[in-house]
UniProtKB/TrEMBL annotation:
<dbReference type="Pfam" id="PF08450">
    <property type="entry name" value="SGL"/>
</dbReference>
<dbReference type="GO" id="GO:0004341">
    <property type="term" value="F:gluconolactonase activity"/>
</dbReference>
<comment type="similarity">
    <text>Belongs to the SMP-30/CGR1 family.</text>
</comment>
<dbReference type="InterPro" id="IPR011042">
    <property type="entry name" value="6-blade_b-propeller_TolB-like"/>
</dbReference>
<feature type="domain" description="SMP-30/Gluconolactonase/LRE-like region">
    <location>
        <begin position="14"/>
        <end position="89"/>
    </location>
</feature>
<protein>
    <recommendedName>
        <fullName>SMP-30/Gluconolactonase/LRE-like region domain-containing protein</fullName>
    </recommendedName>
</protein>
<dbReference type="GO" id="GO:0019853">
    <property type="term" value="P:L-ascorbic acid biosynthetic process"/>
</dbReference>
<dbReference type="GO" id="GO:0005509">
    <property type="term" value="F:calcium ion binding"/>
</dbReference>
<dbReference type="InterPro" id="IPR013658">
    <property type="entry name" value="SGL"/>
</dbReference>
Length: 104
């Protein structure tokens, strides 16, 4: 069977950093132009988003990765920082990131 490829999720200017969570069957992704985290469940068509508090208009996010064995915990990059964000995949936020480490 051929895979079906179609646009999904909320409209974004530049959707990036897709992460598929096999356990919850959820696609997580970000909009590089805005500090927003998105979730999409193909089975139900449910789409949600939450704004992330970045600390400034020029501090963009570039990826989201779920932390293994940590419910609702994600590593999110903000500019040159890795942060941890807690999100249930549905609440609108704003989400307050916890600083993890700066990267060069």
């Amino acid at each position: 069977m051929e895979p079906k490829i179609e646009p999904v999720g909320s409209p974004t200017l530049l959707g990036e950093g897709p992460y598929w969570d096999e356990e919850t069957q959820t696609l997580y992704y970000i909009d590089v132009t805005k500090p927003i985290l998105f979730s999409y469940k193909p089975e139900t068509g449910a789409q949600h988003s939450a704004e992330i508090e970045t600390g400034g208009p020029n501090e963009r996010i570039s990826f989201v990765i779920k932390i293994k064995d940590k419910k609702n915990k994600f590593v999110v990059s903000i500019k040159n920082r890795f942060t941890i964000v807690t999100w249930d995949g549905e609440s609108p936020g704003p989400l307050t990131p916890q600083h993890l480490v700066d990267v060069e």
